[in-house]
Batch of 2 targets.
Target 1
Amino acid sequence: MAAAESDREVPSALCTEFLNFSVKDTASKWLQVTDLYKEVYHHLARYVPKIYCLGPNLNPQSEDLLAQMLLQAPLEWYLCGEDPSTGLAKLEQNNQPSQLCGHVFKVGEPTYSCRECAADPTCVLCMQCFLGSVHKEHRYRMTTSGGGGFCDCGDTEAWKKGPYCQKHEPNISDSCQEDPLAHLSTDMIARCYNVFSVVLKYAVDMLTWDKEDELPPGLEPPDRSDTYYCMLFNDEVHTYEQVIYTLQKAVNCTQKEAVSFATTVDRDGRKSVRFGDFAFCELAKSVIVRNTSRQSKPLRVQVMHSSVVAHQCFALKALHWLGHVIGYSDALRRILCQVGLERGPEGENSSMVDTLMLCDSKMWKGARNVYHQLFMSSLLMDLKYKKLFAIQFAKNYERLQSDYVKDDHDREFSVTDLSVQMFTVPSLARMLITEENLMTTIIRTFVDHLRHRDLQGRFQFERYTAQQAFKFRRVQSLIGDLKYVLISRPTEWSDQLREKFLEGLDTFLELLKCMQGMDPVVRQVGQHIEMEPEWEAAFTLQMKLTHIISMIQEWCATDERVLIEAYKKCLTALTHCHSGFADGEQPITLSMCGHSVDTIRYCVSQEKVSIHLPVSRLLAGLHVLLSKMEVAYRFPEQLPLSELSPPMLIEHPLRCLVLCAQVHAGMWRRNGFSLVNQIYYYHNVKCRVEMFDKDLIMLQAGASMMDPNHFLMIVLSRFELYHIFSSADCRKRYNRENANKDVVQQNNTLTEEMLHLIMMVVGERFEAGIGQVEGCDEIKREILHQLCIRPMAHSELVKALPENENKETGMERVIDCVASFKKPGVTGRGLYELRPECAKQFNLYFHHYSRADQSKAEEAQRKLKRQNGEDTALPPPVLPPFCPLFASLVNILQCDVLLGMLGAVLQWAVEPSAGHWSESMLQRVLHLIGMALLEEQQQLENSSEDNDVYFNFTLKMSRPGEAPSNTASVLALLENLQNAPHLEVHEDMIRWLLKTVAGIKTLRERSASTSTVTASGSRGQEETACDKDKAERKRKAEMARLRREKVMAQMSEMQRHFINENKELFHQSLEELDASTSTSLEHSPASPDAALACVGPRRSRPREKRQVVTCILCQEEQEIRADGKAMVLAAFVQRSTVMSKNRTRPPHDPKRYDPLFMHPDLSFGTHTGSCGHIMHSHCWQRYFEAVQAKEQRRQQRLRVHTSYDVGNGEFLCPLCECLSNTVIPLLPRTMGSSSCEQPGLGQWLKTSGQQIKAMHSAHRKLQPVSTVEETVEEECPAPEVFTVDYIPTNPYSSTIKEMLTTFGTATYKVGLKVHPNEQDPRIPIMCWSSCAYTIQSIERLLVDEKKPLFGSLPCRQDDCLSSLARFGSACWTAACQPTVQGHFIRLLAALIPDPQVEASPCILDVDMLHLLVSVVLSYGSVHSQDSSGLSVDAVQLHLFHLITVAHMVQILLTSGPEEVTMEQESGEAEGGEEEGACRLYNTLRTHVGSSLPEVGSGWHLWRCVKTGILPYLRGAALFFHHLHGVPAPPELHALCPGQWEVLCGYLSLPSNLLQLFHGQQELLEPLLHGWCTHPGIQQTLQGGGVLVSFPRESNSLIDLPDDYSALINQASSFTCPKSGGDKSRAPTLCLVCGSMLCSQSYCCQTELEGEDVGACTAHTFACGAGVGIFLRVRESQVLFLAGKTKGCFYAPPYLDDYGETDQGLRRGNPLHLCHERYRKIQKLWRQHSITEEIGHAQEANQTLVGIDWQHL
Ligand SMILES: [Zn+2]
Ligand SMILES: [Zn+2]
Ligand SMILES: [Zn+2]
Ligand SMILES: [Zn+2]
Ligand SMILES: [Zn+2]
Ligand SMILES: [Zn+2]
Ligand SMILES: [Zn+2]
């Protein structure tokens, strides 16, 4: 292969070229030529192939260096006409930068938008600008950028106010909009122009070049080599895994190389995977193509000549260079724009910018990115050229979009994505609409791409293919563009804008016409449908268009002429859709209660019906605007009102509503779920504004123009209920009708739905234009009704409210009027609660309630009323009056047909025997009556003249019914029902109705007798304040009346008829209006008189007490006895670094590590925890075997994971499901033998020395002779009372022995991460060490939580500590005795030098509590040989004192210099201590020498000792307390002063600790000397090792910033450490040590124990011994990890102002640190509960178990 040679040859060949090359000469030559273009091309042709692409592996650094020297430098020199280092500096100096910030966002960088001031949500600021802007104090939104896009700071069109930050504030002295070219010489401009033309031309030539083997003219290399690249291109079809697999096969590379290739292809869009001669590359190509063509189209591969690739590489470089150079000066930028947009020889759309855009979809990703970036930094940054570019973009729009739709790359890699940068600028958008007809172009392009139509020309998505579906998804981005164009409403209209907008509207109506009636359904009878029809596509279209439709209405609302024209166009479109409506059919005549009407014959349940009616709905929206803008009153002559046919208007919306009712009634069950889903979305908050709501409005509009009786009869007929209510004796007939039970049920539901519909038609008046309301009343009412269901969090409310195109609900403006906010606690979230005074506005039949919402709200409101001691009636609320255009709707409430229907239902309720009647039917009827009564009452109260009130429901309801003979009136029926026993629930409501009737009667009587002037007098003086207001309103009302009269004159024939009938109506006034199961291990209170001591010969003997516990599995009681059945505690052992003071210490080699001495940095420990649940050992064993068997079966059946790893001994506690991995046996207390005569320290030292010697020689005998190397010293006679080979009887029963082994092995296995080995001598060490570590961690926890040492631990921890300590003292019985004795000897040798023990550690390298625990617990094995009557207690005390002295020495050695600023407290009676401390310190200095600083103050030294030793003393107290069961003195159960003395007393220590030393100075002095002369001391003190000082501070999780965006910003500048400066996709912060990691990504996977794991998992093994706590910054989510298989997500400690977290950062509210929640996470960590927490989370949510946590 040629590759290797050329790699080496290159540098030398180029070296000579390089040496002979002169930048200046080349540039000067260029300055003289006439055809610069030819010269430069010649230069590039010669050099580029020599610099780039010389071998298989690119060498970007040397390539860039050479390109800079040989290629870019001469260009720059030419440009400046002098040395560029001076020339460019001059340019920069003279530059007057534009006020645009233009900062281009990196992936993941935080962006800010102001919800109050941004023109639209795409207007964003970078962090620097935001922090210097006024919006910081506003309601802002924070998001992370997806990359691309730039900061809009300085763009006055982007912000309603505060467009500049402090930095970009324009200088007043700046003459604005000055031409930047003014500062440049003509020469300079010309040179610049030349060089930009050539370079840009070159880049365009090369990037759009599609030949693989030749170069454009002028670039052919002088000497052509014969090397090729096999180039692999990115597509969005093949997965990473497919590409990796294929590459391994095709080019024979390792998995690692293949991953790297695939990553590059994905990132840059292409990557050469092979270099060599043509055939060699061609071979690889054919393998790749063959391997990837099976399921889909193959991966794109090209074999390209190396010189082509080289020029393309430099072309990208050249674009970068252009971007760099124009950064020096706005003038250069403008010249580049001019060059780019200059029309080429081919005429229109032939500029270089056009060429690039039009080739966009043919380029690879990397090339696109580079030129898009250049566009952004040039064309889009220059206000003049931005406009010109926008025009070109609009001209090419259709082509670009078609290319994009065919392409498969994501939109962010397409040039079409730049649309947002131009279309959202209001002035540009308006210009493009008027001059380039952009609105029409976009809509037309969109419609052109949707080709699937049915016979009537409507869209049909039924059988569209995956390919079409893909295309459909892509084409939706056009709707996004349309939204940008429309997002800001015009404030001023020109005629041209009107014309083009209306033209666009025409096209839009064409689109809507294709949707009107699409996806029709027919009710399925008999068989269930076979295949669910496709419905999502149609709804997706509807959803995407929802905001567009709303925005078009808003545009219309800003101009009367546009509104009128739009109304006309829309009506024409609708008429067009309805042509063929009811043709040929004979109309039928309906008649009821003396009224009759003609209608068409149509049944929803039998014929086609569609949910999609966008044309009708748009018309409904425009109709409301006519009323709202009063256009209907002011220009009635221009409106086609007479063409309106109300029955036609309501027909389709009514069918749609009936369809919903029938689906509710179960009539469409056989049509499957697709219909149910459609109905759901029809009402859903995302769609309802332009679907359900508008259908209702259309019914209101139609009904307002009809005779109410006619309207109701048509409604009855469409609901297919006409036959029930129309017959003369319907009140009886319905009862007797013995129809099919299903049919009766259906009819009941339909009747309920119909009554509800009537309520909505009359009662929904909260949209401005329908009722007389303010804009915000509607949203207030929505919120109020949500909160009537239950208190809700901010995000829940947001979800329940419709968002506008800016993703705003408008909630913040009004929420405080209706709700009060309740802050969250440590868990949960903040909630809004309804203000009590708002409850009276509750409407049970609120139109946006689902049935479920309705019943929840009803229940909640009744409960509330009961609590307040009120009656439980839920009457309708008082409603605002209608606008005049809709005013006639109230007449529905008092029309004859309605009264007939009300009467019928009431009559059925009176005689309910047949059951063809439902309570909710009655409830609705009562509600309707209530609405009618309130209407009358309102009108009476607000009328100013006594004969003003036309509405008289009370009169109508007291008239008898018409049916056969005179039947009871509605009023009579009500009175009758009042006492019906079966209607108890409605009693309150009926009473309320009757009371209201009575109230109205008195009102009428009063107004009849007295003049109505007094009507308002009754309401008291508060009125006077609003008198002025009222007068104003009255004036308006009067004007409205005059206008109204004008309308009336213009109304159609039919309307006129109706108005004549109800004349008075239109004259009415319009005035506005823990517990543990172990009870036996108790801590009995101390006997108050005796001083308590927990250690030493004087230790208190607690009373003998039987310990009886209950097994949680078999419920039997069992006494804890050494010879009894073993009882065990479920336990969880884990490695821990929680207390580590040194996270850089590498993990130990588990095979060789000697854990005997714990280093004081506590870098790795073994923690044991327990849930405190007790079982028989045999019960537990049986349970565990069952778990194992179940797991085996499960693994065979399906590959489901569990939250625990049975193979590793894990199981869940059978009672509390707490994760456990072993059990601790419960042992009885050790009984100390008290004997009076005990040896002093000297005596004991002597005895123990003898004993150790004896053991040494005994052990030596045990070893095989060959291994004994040292010469055997003289045989040491053992003391007679010490029998070295005596084997003590084991006091424990066989089951206890077994459990001792079980727990010992488990601790060893987990603590060292090794395979279990019952023989390993390190087992006992690990158990003691775990005991000591657990005690230390609990001691720290108590300090951190500010709790007293005793009495505040949960029982489970008490139980755990006791069993750990007792287990530790017994575990030697399960091990080999000489081994344990050997441990004791080595442990003791660290304190008392023993020549036979080698390599004893220096005391600075020993954690003293670990030493104490180990030495005390291992002593048992030595004592068992002793028969001298030496008491264990005495020895323990000696050991304890000795270690305490050693710890004091340790503390003094590490105490460090005195802090000068400390204020010395008045030493009260501590003189002895201070003096003692000084003496000891000075003794140490004589031994250690100058390494110890001189310290004068004894106070300082004593203080160091006292604070430094306290954690150790507290730990020792916990240890001895749990070992011996001696109750603690009451003072230690509280946090009171004087703890020190009590603690020392409890530990049998003098409170002046230094007496321990000075009292035995002659004995201890030699030991001290030994400690201090250990070579390790000097080494450590001089900085050679880790120096830990005491007391050790508790570790905390890292400090987090208060503002979450600081974290996002930090993460956005974090780059993947492995892939050279790339952004990390999932930057993740370790909360333990603060490292930022590149998580969940191939690039940072590493191998751990033979498996590929992600960065987080790898990190936990070093940082947290397998346990990790992370913050996923992009997701705002806490991640807990344990081992490779366990993990869960946890709520982050960041909350928004509404007390909610934002996991996934979807809402974008500003987030701030909640200290309480962070402390809670920290506490979980400190108490080693992370793994437990994960276990509980996984048990609660099984999907968490399936996640591949190790890849995070
Ligand atoms: Zn900025
Ligand atoms: Zn700024
Ligand atoms: Zn603002
Ligand atoms: Zn049991
Ligand atoms: Zn448990
Ligand atoms: Zn870490
Ligand atoms: Zn990475």
Note: The CA atoms of residues 1544 and 1551 lie 6 Å apart.
Target 2
Amino acid sequence: MDALYYLGLLVSILIIVYQFTPNRRVQHKDLPPSPPSLPIIGHFHLLKRPVHQALSNLSNKYGPIFLLRLGSRSTLVLSSRSAIEECFPKNDIIFSNRPLLPSQKILQYNYTTIAAPYGNHWRNLRRFTALEIFSAKSLQMSSDIRTEEIIFMIKHLCKRSFEGGVPRKVDVKSFFYLLDFNIMLKMVAGKRCFEEEELDLDETTKGKLDDLKETFGPFLNMALGDYFPYLRWLTYYGVEKQQMNIHKKRDAFIQALLDAHQNNNNPLMTSTVPGGEISRPIIDVLLKLHESEPEFYTKDVIKGIIQVIKAHSLPDYSSDMARTCSVTQYLAFKKARDEIDNHVGDYSRLLNDADLAKLPYLHSIISETLRVGPVTVLPARESSEDCTVGGYHIPRGTQLWVNAWAVHRDPALCIESDRFKLERFLQSEEEKQGGCKFLSFGLGRRVCPGEGLGMRVMALSLGTLIQCFKWEEVKDDSHVPIKKTNLNKQSEERPVNIIFRPREALTKSFLSIQNNIPVEKKMEVYWCNLAIVFFFTLFLLKLFLQKHANTKKTPPTPPGLPFIGHLHMLKQPLHKTLHQISEKYGHVFSLQFGTRKVLVVSSPSAVEECFTKNDIIFANRPRSLAGKHLNYNYSTIGFASYGDLWRNLRRFTTLELFYTSRLAMFSGIRIEEVRLVVKQIFQDASDQDLKVELSSKFMDVAFNIMLRLIAGKRYYGKDIVDEEAKQFRDIMWEYQQLSASSNLVDFLPLLRWVDFQRVESRMIKLKKKIDYFMELLLKEHRTRRSKSALQLNDQSDTDKGEMKKTLIDVMLSLQEKEPELYTDLNIKAVILAMLIAGTETSSSTMDWAMALLLNHPEKLERVVAEMDAKVGFDHLLVESELEKLNNLQNVITETLRLYPPAPLLLPHESAEDCTVCGYDVPQGTMLFANLWTLQRDPKLWVDAERFMPERFDGGEISEGYKLIPFGAGRRICPAAAFGRRVVGLGLGALLQCFEWNRVGKEDVNMEEKSALTNPRAQPLEALCKPRQPLINHLLAL
Ligand code: HEM
């Protein structure tokens, strides 16, 4: 109404202004159709409430693609699926911008929230949210929070229903609001919004809830100043003022959360989830990132992220969920309940996240709720350049409105579209139609990243309510009765009151809910107090030590020679030499390698200090010839300096390769490769013991797995003889030789002048070969992509489609969307890094593990016995079984303790002066963490030199920093889980299928060779015989 009021006053003045405006638009002849307009205001007068309905009426008259002129902004309106498909994905990048509406500047923290214009800033925010909040792993980690909050609310409902004998009605809309606010705040800040005593919604709590709804709910009023810039001064007192007030409230709310977290680094705010990972409130993650990247994670950006998460959380959907409850309860809830009971079984437990995928009926309720639900017109986009849509010319700067409401109700797409009809999802009606028929979460690049979270919260809350209660709707006579079949005519504000009666069959569960929680809470408080006392004591101790320490100290160092420093002392293997020095000079000492200062640390406390307190300072890698020539000028993830490039590469690899669901997706490749080697050994073996050279087999498995992930190729194995494979193997061999040679030129730059040992010229030659090969791979993939239908499948998210894609395919399709980030150079650098870092590390671990087991047959028997008991003989080992094979896991851990593939980690370098264990360490110091000393320290390990996998039987692996085979801190190996899976599967399969023995009576030689990944000096040989109980499976391979 504000809008019409102002317009009435001003229209006559503006007509005069308009007459004198020189640059009135010259209409392009191919513009989309448009209704007749009024001077100045254009089509503003046509936007009657509800806007989506008005737009649908216009589209009936002017077609699914039409143009409106709203003051100074041209607005393209799309209202049909075909029109939208015409526009997306063809013009997706062009329409990936959001219009910079002046009124939004403050609400959007100067356009720095995720609603920011399309570009680097937006991409970084998007990656952050995708990784930290919405990735499969993060969702899995936050699932406990959702379950806990739902139980909290259910418990309250139970309690109330048992009280006083009088049935109490519950306003479901408020129920969903309370639940959703609690879940979101718990995820964001680690605490609830509404505590138990507030759940009955007295007047004060109602006020608090309304206030939150207003503050974080969607803001729907249009600010005229956005469309009539010269009227901004007037509208400043209307809609913009309301926005300003809302902004102040939001900002104060978020600031209070931030203050609380900054001042209170409460260890209990984190919780450990199964698998040992820490689920931290999002604020803490952001504050941590603020410390490391203050220039990107500014306070405004942090507030913007929190605001978006809170504002876009589920309360948007609460009204619709409530309406669904009313509409469907009699028709559908019985079936949904049966489905849940059938799936969950004996009523002994409540629904959880893992059940949801198996409940199609429940899903259809949620999907239909969303179809008829809250999304009307999608948030506006703006074209960044001229383009065409449906054959019409669309000029740059045109605002785009997609009328999702019209699409969702299009009778041509949805039979009986105005009915709440679950069958349409059960019969996969939408799948038959395909394309972008349902737009509840938007589409294209700007699609809602929180779809997975949203669906889970809705399904879990509704599902648990259905599972636990019988429902009875209480009709409120003061309102017009609801007409159940016609959704469009329902009143939005009609409350839906339900009496929830606990189901008898689940009473047991309710009781356990009620009894267990307080006990858990008591334990929490106990641990909380203990932790606070512990950390406080540590803090005091630290203060005390700092006060008494002499801060101006350099670490101890052996006497050196002029010019070369300690270079003359360096014998290979380097970690053993450094170990000997540490025996004399302690766990923190320094060396001088030619021009470079080196710090060597080997105690848990020193390592911890380097990778926690000084983690950012040591997150750099030193410059080296190998980094320059063999790593695309420091562009690979392992050699890149700490900064934007490294962060982008790291995010990309984490998301595309190493996060849980991707890992699972590629398990087929790992199994196939491992089984191929098993088959090969089996074919060579007879009943007699066969002598097998295992080292090369482990190499074959590790390389082929990586190659298939990256490029869909297999280059290793005795059956592979083609020229391309040979070329690749030669390149890798040469790479290993060159990187392994300790490169004096890195320490004595003068030697570069004489091309000492021709290292540099050999590297340059090899670099050309590497690049040529990488180019070939890219070219081949590009050609294949353009020929095949892969491009079309890019939109498909099915596991099958994803499985077929290689990492190169994924990167090439990302290149189409973000060419400036996914340059050819970056793609080649990712491929190279994966091949170097992801192959020998795993193969050398398998090699050492097998050698250790051969020397300790009793430990080998223990592993096999466990495998026989837990896996049995009716199938070959699969990845999902690895978790339960504790003895096998312990063998891998013990191998990584004794023979870590990177015994000095990769070298780090300090970016500024710092202190380590009280010693001054200048900027530019190279850091080696010597795992050989650390992980064999007799003060830390019982019988430190002995191979004793059983030492981990109690699961005390991650105690302190005494075992870090994958590194620590920011540059920790991103593929630890991946590596362990490859090693576990490779080793496990060989142990399951064959009997293994040493070739002679003597122990296997355990000498190391000086090379990149600490490999064995001699290739490993062993005698093997197929195991009889598995013979049929082996024959079937
Ligand atoms: C048993 C197997 C593995 C072990 C023991 C291992 C160990 C390590 C270690 C110690 C580092 C250096 C950490 C530091 O400098 O602080 C590292 C870095 C790295 N690893 Fe692994 N790794 C393994 C498997 C893999 C696999 C399979 C891949 C890839 C597919 C991989 C990719 C990387 C990358 C890209 C880096 C560099 C990270 C950076 O600089 O940011 N690793 N790994």
Note: The mean pLDDT is 80.
